[in-house]
Design a protein that fits this description.
Two copies of one chain form a homodimer.
Chain A lengths: L20 E14 L2 E8 L2 E8 L4 H8 L6 E10 L12 E12 L16 H6 L1 H4 L3 H23 L3 E2 L17 E3 L7 E3 L5 H9 L4 E9 L11 E10 L3 H20 L8 E3 H8 L13 E2 L1 H4 L5 H4 L3 E7 L8 H12 L9 E5 L5 E3 L7 H11 L6 E7 L1 H18 L10 E5 L4 E4 L4 E4 L12 H6 L2 H6 L4 E6 L2 E8 L4 H10 L4 H14 L7 E7 H8 L30 H6 L2 E3 L5
Parallel strand pairs in A: 3-5, 6-9, 11-17
Antiparallel strand pairs in A: 1-2, 1-4, 2-3, 4-5, 7-8, 9-10, 10-22, 12-13, 13-16, 14-15, 14-16, 17-20, 18-19, 20-21, 21-22
Helix pairs in contact in A: 4-6, 15-16
């Protein structure tokens, strides 16, 4: 066979090629023997082409073809011929190749799981042999989607004059926020780099440097105890702009998001609604509400209190949602299960009150002792509940019950099939609080991060106000939410040394700590720092949400498992004693 | 002033805007008071616009303008007016802004160096205040060039069906090659990740995964003792293709290189010449010859030996170059200096013989005692030397003297102005040796890396041959050289377990070491590995070479110094004892 591995790939031959001689290379997807004919499906990234071997015409070749195992890598030469039974599900389904030469380029052992869209392999084995998992169409398509999404991101931002600037990976460790991965420096004994949790300070310095519009698709790192669907390394679309207000930023990145949906999914998203943090919490009990369905919170304090039901009377908030059309389907046992589900420690509701409006007009509820049917009909009116619906009500401390009811809302949305695949509901959540008071540590935490600016009108209050004033400060911060997932978040930044210094004070930094960790940034504020702000999108998450999938792992070529381990290469691993010696480090394990 | 920071940037106003009211924001480049008029140059990334303040028209405003310091950040409103004295060197030179409102957005202390194309700041101070250095046009332009080059790389490779896949940053440490940076794992006590020196094994696994064409613009890391112009983190254009021969790869990446020159510099590069490693060494004494000038090596063994000059007679190789037109300019003292330069330990020549052909026909040489003028004229004929030229000749062990003469060739090329800016001479160097024998450690080293395939015709010899055969093996490896800089390098890879295993043997790995470090890759070869090969371009170097600059540091936004230190953020730095505790590490400094 001549030394060119292929004239075409396995996805491109059509009826118009009939009669041509071609060379193909690829993997054996499967083979079938039908008497005198042997068929082999040859696969590559681009598709599958059917090969045919005729026993009468060439016995030796056909016998060789029969010996091919799954995933063998082969090269063939042959003629493109019309298929007698066409396969309209396959782009190459009109043709097949009458093979005249066959060369095995590499054999394969039997794969540990099937290389099919639906595989028989479990998570662990597919992680260990990820290079075979990626051969499967769904995983391969995810990788190609990710690549296309990154390119479209770059094309759009380039068209808007953004400059992609690479910021360093070996930076300085700061105790704020999540835990850093650290990297011992051999040339500077006893000193460490840290891997960036985000390029935050560098992108702000680029604004001070006059770059005006910066972006980067960039790896970030967090040494967290891994929860499901977290990865120690993840990717952000990281952006920053100078001389901008919130309006400029929301418009720019709404434009980016629309562009991405249009150019990868061919979907037109309308203008994105906006909602304040307070409103989102009141209406959905979440700062990332899924707007694919309504089921909004209805507050019942005015009609539910004062009827001698002690639980409601003692509650700060009585609030409910209406689940449509399930009254007659949900038995008492179902309701009991749901109540227990709400009482699990992860959610922590004290209980769950429900009022069933049966289709036949009868009302069944857990609070019949305290409320007449007429009174409950007033609730129904307020909640828009009709015969067949169930009203779920929780009560207690406002902040807590909202969070609990949010969980129930999402659960019912899922059970009722209201979170539809292919339905995309974006939302800007704005006007976040600047600071959160943490009762345990008796200090403020930054709701977004320590560089977030209070709103213009709150700046003076921040510099001079008392404790209660601090709690009420609003930030120029915003999140982009799609279908209940936080896709991106950002803020206008502080660009004034005094304000930044005050923020570090409030967050419990001593002057010395602030100077040691962020002195370079505060110093830069004194050399002509422009007003600026930005945003970062979780790129892995965006890929998953756009494909209606829940796990980011499926969009990462070589993900790590929940122990932060790469199962394929078996990392992390012990290193040479010499390597530790060079770093002047000693491993000294202390059992906790 | 209303809450929009600018209606235009500082580079876009033209005569066509005259009469419009505009809002601009930017930095004060400089101010000038001319009696009743005050002029301020307002700068941003896009350009400079002249502001004018008229004392008679608005005294308060003009007095405020006079107080503006360099690098103050200001916002102004005003009218676009025609300039009486136009500045044709500036895109906005036809207009100026008659300012009606002025707001200082942020003051600036006096910058520690001038923000001009030619600055008065030294390297160290500019590194510490890199955010001000980037405001200077040359540095800013470098960043923008880099961004554009990356985008054009992606556009081209996308058009050729390449998929950009992100490979992990937290991988496994391998003792082969340069030193790894290691990252202690908190979740896996006593174990470490390593930062990748390149995504080599991952891109090969992606080929085994059927991705067919992969690329990535990716950060890589090497913990080396830093030489000038090395950085601990650097960026590669990393590529791999399946079912390809060398020819496919050279064509594809010659295409990429041509595309980049065309679309960033508007330069058409012709087809790239190719030269074997052996030929490059013979003609230029280097595997990365600068082809902007000739000055080729001429071997003189046949005519210089056998004339009782013991140095030549004892030499394996007598070889020279001809430097045009310097015979009458170079004094004996100059020649002595040049000889000493060649004798420095960095070059290590035993001496330097020269023959001057003076313009008037006289011949002056250091070997007149052994050779008649007629004999020397034969040398001149062979070397193409004419009156006015100097022939430089070195002799000794072939490999060594070629390297020495390469240094002299480059030095003379530079002195004679033959390495012209804006002149680009690409070259493929091919057919590298597979293995290098290291006398000191008495073992083979991989000339490229351990995954490089021998040429097809050498495969069987590699599996069975003796020591001398191993030395003669040629690899399917290639480098792209432009103007004497190695821009990229790659190879066809081994995709067969037995051959890979044999290579590890030759490189001195025990079976256990090979299995522990690269078992995952050799295992993958048994599940349908296709023939594949690739290349990696040094992206920082490519940026520098395309701009005729020698330092990659100028194309990195936040570079580290020669001690691997980021002077701006002061990293690396000591970390909290708690952080080390969490990692079960103790710092134990041993003075060497």
């Amino acid at each position: 066979m001549d030394h060119m591995y292929r004239s075409h790939n396995c996805g491109e031959l059509r009826a118009s090629h009939i009669g041509q001689g071609v060379t193909l290379s690829g993997w054996v997807q499967k083979g079938r023997d039908l008497g005198g004919m042997t068929f082999v499906d040859l696969r590559d990234r681009y598709g599958i082409t059917q090969l045919v071997f005729n026993l009468d015409a060439n016995e030796e070749l056909t016998m060789a073809a029969r010996k091919l195992g799954r995933e063998f890598v082969v090269q063939i030469k042959g003629q493109v011929e019309e298929r007698s039974s066409k396969n309209s599900n396959r782009a190459t389904g009109d043709i097949e190749i009458n093979v005249t030469e066959l060369k095995v380029l590499n054999a394969s052992m039997t794969p540990p799981f099937t290389i099919e869209d639906e595989t028989d392999g479990g998570d662990d084995i597919r992680m260990k042999y990820r290079y075979m998992d990626i051969r499967r169409n769904p995983v391969r398509d995810n990788m190609i989607f990710r690549s296309k999404l990154a390119l479209e991101t770059r094309k759009f931002l380039d068209s808007q004059d953004f400059v992609e600037v690479e910021t360093p990976c070996l930076i300085k460790s700061t105790p704020e926020g999540a835990r850093d991965f650290v990297v011992p420096s051999r040339l500077n004994p006893g000193q460490f780099y840290a891997l960036p949790q985000s390029p935050q300070t560098f992108k702000q310095l680029l604004m001070i440097a006059g770059m005006d519009k910066y972006f980067q698709i960039v790896k970030c790192f967090r040494d967290e105890d891994l929860r499901a669907d977290r990865q120690p390394e993840f990717t952000q679309i990281d952006c920053e702009m100078s001389f901008v207000t919130i309006e400029d930023i929301l418009n720019t990145f709404e434009g980016l998001t629309k562009h991405l949906f249009k150019h990868t999914l061919d979907r037109d998203l309308g203008d994105f609604p906006r909602m304040s943090y307070d409103e989102a919490m009141e209406r959905y009990g979440s700062d990332k509400p899924d707007l694919r369905f309504d089921m909004e919170f209805v507050e019942l304090n005015d009609i539910a209190k004062g009827h001698d039901f002690p639980i409601f009377d003692a509650a700060e908030l009585v609030v409910g949602i209406c689940a449509k059309g399930i009254a007659d389907d949900y038995s008492n046992k179902d309701m009991k299960k749901l109540t227990e589900w709400m009482q699990r420690p992860q959610i922590g509701a004290k209980g769950l009150i429900y009022v069933k409006l049966m289709a036949d007009g009868i009302i069944k509820s857990t609070v019949g002792k305290y409320y007449t049917d007429d009174q409950l009909r007033i609730w129904a009116d307020k909640m828009g509940a009709e015969p067949g619906d169930v009203m779920f009500i929780v009560s207690g401390e406002a902040e807590k019950v909202r969070k609990q009811l949010n969980e129930l809302r999402l659960e019912m949305g899922s059970r009722l099939g209201l979170m539809k695949d292919g339905d995309f509901k974006p939302l800007w959540v704005i006007d976040f609080p600047l600071l959160e008071w943490d009762e345990d540590s008796e200090r403020f935490h930054a709701m977004h991060h320590p560089f977030t600016s209070p709103k213009q009108e709150d700046m003076n209050r921040m510099l001079t106000g008392d404790h209660e004033t601090m709690k009420a400060l609003r930030a120029d911060a915003y999140d982009l939410v799609i279908n209940g997932s936080e896709i991106g978040g950002g803020s206008i930044r502080i660009h004034d040394r005094e304000l930044q210094s005050r923020n570090f004070d409030l967050l419990g930094f001593t002057k010395e700590e602030a100077e040691e960790q962020f002195g370079f940034l505060m110093g830069a504020f004194e050399y002509g720092a422009p007003p600026h702000g930005g945003i970062a999108f979780g790129f892995d998450r965006l890929c998953a949400v756009m494909n209606g999938q829940s796990s980011i792992r499926d969009f990462i070529a070589f993900p790590k498992n929940n122990q932060g381990r790469d199962m394929m290469i078996d990392a992390p691993s012990p290193v040479d004693g010499d390597q530790l010696n060079d770093l002047n480090l000693v491993f000294d394990f202390k059992e906790d």
